[in-house]
Amino acid sequence: MQIDVNLMRENIIEQWRLANVDDTYTFYYDESNNIRKLHLTESGLNVGKTSNFVLAGILHKGQEHNARFEFLIDTLQLQKTTKELKLKHIAKGGVDNLLASNKLGILLKWLLDNDFYVHYFNLNVFYWSIVDIVDSIIDNLDFENKQFFIPAHMLIKSDLYKVIISDEENFLAALRDFEYPNIKPERVDEFSKYLVYFVRLNSKVLRKDRKFLLNKFMEGATKCSELFFIMNEKDHVLIDNFFVFYLRNTCLFKNSVHIFDSEKEIQAIFEKYELVDKGKAINSYSFADSQSMVEIQVSDVLAGFLSKYFTFISETDVNELKVLKSKLSCIQRENLGLLKSLIDKSNDLSEGFFYRTVSEDEYFKSDFFLHS
Questions:
Q1: What is the pTM of this model?
Q2: Angle, CA 168 vertex, CA 164 and CA 170 arms, to 5°
Q3: Please, what is the angle between helix 102-113 and helix 69-76, to 10°?
Q4: Is 308 found in the same domain as 180?
Q5: 265 near 36, Cβ under 8 Å?
Q6: Residue 114: which of 44, 79, 154, 66 has the closest Cα?
Q7: Nearest to 256 by CA among 1, 5, 4
Q8: Disulfide check for 117: which of 44, 48, 58, 346 has CB 3.0–4.6 Å away?
């Protein structure tokens, strides 16, 4: 089966007005918190905690670089028995410990000094699993209401997510009963009425104006004859795999080289497809053993750190973030500044290096903590 890379990339480029995506880069990838599948069980979800999935790493211009990674490894003073660089060799524990690590500063500064850039995809897996509810309702609205609610769809999705996690256990139980995300035609009306009831009951967690808007939007659910994006799927399967996120950069940066850490499940899915550019097959991606490629090892450190950072952002109240940021030590502030500089440098080259599927709150909290 063929995938035309231009069908995906042209929509992304137009939507985000991305620059420098036709240039040649070499991307290195590793992932963190790859749960592979997410599905509903009788007790909730098949995983105990849905930390943010991150696919991230380093990149450089062109297909070759002259950086001396052996100098970086020597500077980090790893034990001689260390076979490959991992996040645990930089620091252990939470974000506060990582930001307090001298070795993290050494790594980030070395990347800045050696003309490397960073890229990441950040996914709140539970948020992604429920946003199709909003899209399905919007799809059923009349023209006038669509014109009103479409510009606010990100706000509505974020508020629905906030309402759901305030009573997550009961909501998950209901989703399982309705065989979500495969709502049967004869239960569309019942599910829609449940959504209206659940939101009214729990929307007290929102500001008054946001509460009014979400409840007004949910009223549209009672007029739905179908819920297109949450029907005709597999019962109880919220996420089947993360292939589409590995595919994104491969299509968007079609003239670049993409080297992924070995991931058998994703590799097997890639092998089912042939990527083509204007009818011509392209083979711009490969999978490599991290032990033999230090660039992937560095990507492992970045992916692990960013996953901890984004999960921390997701789980921490904005007022608590303000307090925590005000109490950062000198080295923590310096390392946060180095991370900001590396992301800003990369973003200046191409905003396409970064992609987030997270709630509105997570956007704002992360931008506040990192960019003030």
A1: 0.95
A2: 110
A3: 160
A4: no
A5: yes
A6: 66
A7: 5
A8: 346
